[in-house]
Structure to design on (203 residues):
């Protein structure tokens, strides 16, 4: 566990935010900047992945608040048991009873559609993550904002671990798309998967 800032009367805030993804690291940078500027928080954080459960130190941690990327119902259940305020900065566990600070998925989708429209694209695709509510919001927003029909492919999150061997469904989908085509991907990780599949297809 790493503690940032010396002990004092600052509020103790635990950060359950992954360092394995760029989005998590950017959130941590923003929180650290706020802590430096206000000098009111003592931050506790342990590096990890998005799917990790609460670290061991957290079970005996005593503090004043938690900022968490809540990816699973199990983590949400752990956080329900503590008696301090919790802020979720992910929003994928819909039953989690915590305030949510999150990006505007609808606006992201609309900006992507506008970007493609400004470049005169007439064909569109969306490559998303099956079962993820934020990916579905981006899909729906993109489909609603594009000037033409959108071809949609959604694969399970597990597809992201097979960069060396892109999913046959993805490769087949890419071949079927009319070209040129503007494709919105749900996440940076999904973008890497798409790029590898494009290379495999010679696109």
């Amino acid at each position: 566990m790493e503690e940032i800032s010396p002990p004092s009367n600052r509020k103790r805030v635990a950060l359950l935010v992954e360092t394995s993804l760029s989005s998590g690291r950017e959130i941590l940078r923003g929180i650290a900047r706020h802590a430096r500027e206000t000098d009111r928080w003592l931050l506790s954080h342990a590096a990890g992945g998005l799917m990790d459960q609460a670290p061991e130190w957290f079970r005996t941690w005593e503090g004043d608040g938690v900022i968490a990327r809540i990816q699973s119902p199990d983590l949400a259940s752990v956080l329900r048991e503590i008696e301090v305020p919790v802020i979720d900065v992910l929003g994928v566990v819909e039953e989690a009873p915590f305030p949510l600070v999150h990006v505007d998925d609808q606006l992201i989708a609309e900006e992507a559609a506008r970007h493609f429209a400004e470049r005169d694209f007439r064909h569109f695709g969306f490559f998303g993550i099956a079962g993820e509510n934020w990916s579905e919001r981006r899909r729906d927003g993109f489909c609603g904002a594009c000037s033409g029909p959108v071809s949609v492919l959604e694969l399970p999150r597990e597809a992201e671990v097979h960069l060396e061997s892109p999913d046959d469904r993805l490769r087949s989908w890419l071949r079927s798309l009319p070209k040129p085509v503007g494709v919105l991907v749900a996440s940076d990780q999904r973008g890497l998967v798409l790029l590898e599949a494009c290379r495999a297809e010679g696109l």
Summary: The chain has two domains: 2-88, 105-201. The longest strand covers residues 11-16. Residues 18 and 50 are 5 Å apart (CA to CA). Strands lie at 2-4, 11-16, 41-45, 65-68, 86-88, 124-129, 150-155, 182-185.
